[in-house]
Amino acid sequence: MTRFDLLLVGFGHVAQRFVTLLEEQRARLALEHGVAARVVAVITRRHGQAYAARGLDAASLARRAARGGMIGGTTAGPVSTALIRKMAGASAASGEGRLVLVETTTLDIARGQPAIDHVRAGLTSGAHVITANKGPAAFAYRALAQTAKRAGRRFLFEGAVMDGIPIFNLVRETLPAVKILGFRGVVNSTTNYILTAMEAGQPFEEALAEMQGAGIAEADASLDVDGWDAAAKTAALANVLLDARLTPPRVERQGITAAIGARATSARDAGRRLKLVATAGRDGNRVSARVAPEELSEDDLLAGLEGQQNAIILHTDLLGEIAIVQRGAGLTQTAYALLSDLVTIGRDVSARPPDRRGRSRAHRDRSL
After folding, report:
1. Residue 64: pLDDT band by 50, 70, 90 thresholds?
2. Which listed residue (134, 179, 233, 275) is catalytic?
3. Options 3.40.50.150, 3.30.360.10, 3.40.50.1820, 3.30.300.70; which CATH number does 174-326 get?
4. What's the pTM?
5. Closest Cα partner for 7 from 45, 56, 48?
6. Which is it for strands 286-297 and 310-316: parallel, antiparallel or unpaired?
7. Architecture category of domain 2-163+331-365 in CATH
8. H or E stretch including 368?
9. What are 175-229's pLDDT values in tens digits?
10. Residue 233 catalytic?
11. Counting beta carbons within 10 angstroms of the beta carbon of residue 311, is it exposed (0 to 12), middle (13 to 18) or buried (19 or more)?
């Protein structure tokens, strides 16, 4: 049995569901995967900080945060990377490969910060890092992957695209000797729901309000409808699967507006479907990527996606096309992605001798 200490950075809806899911799955994690976990620290921007070396009652803290209360401390503000390093450095688990930083702060579409700094601080302090934030993989995947390798730690982010559906795991764990040549997909739930609703005559604003009411779209939904969320996911996928060096601003992008409703209904009347499609592919040494509305024939797998459904089609050299469809999404699915990454780290740790050099390596890497 490997017992992990968890340091949570960010404590919004996803992290709150993650800690309750950990409790719900505690027996299965121990019996089937030899993994036990306790939350020893929570650092937030709005709700303060809490720390207990022997473990916190994270479920109680989640209920308190959900009501808008403070979880500890007397002040709130930007998360300090110095505090992350201090808490990680004080943990004996960091030197033994048993400390995991769980990063779930909000995406910053301009630079991917401060999530990138959070990830780097965790890795260079001896912690594995798992995140549901798209920013680190979309803006700094290669640099962070190299930092993780030097530190002898894992940097995992299955929740960054399509919630808990295993896209990155699928390629990493089950497709040895297969080269990904490109991909296309529908990766934003809000815009797919809006386009489906507008086909049936529902106004753009009404469909968007439903997504906001369900907690799928943000109060400021421009990240969704302007295509930025899809562009960030496209950059992350391209960076990891195609070894690209993209950032979201370098993805050609066109979102959707109320004016596109007429085009959606016209396409449906003609036996076609309008979808916001993300594509990426390699041409020689160059990887290009695009997010834009496309009219698809009805026999296209992506055309059959309804409501909040998403899908990715991978183009490979040896297996042709591989498609994976997400028919349901929500907090539990995203929280599960974090849980899945934790189990992956558990397998790594149990399969190799304890890294007694981890702490000294981490201290060396702090200057990077």
Report:
1. very high
2. 233
3. 3.30.360.10
4. 0.91
5. 56
6. unpaired
7. 3-Layer(aba) Sandwich (3.40)
8. none
9. 999 999 999 999 999 999 999 999 999 999 999 999 998 878 876 789 999 999 9
10. yes
11. buried
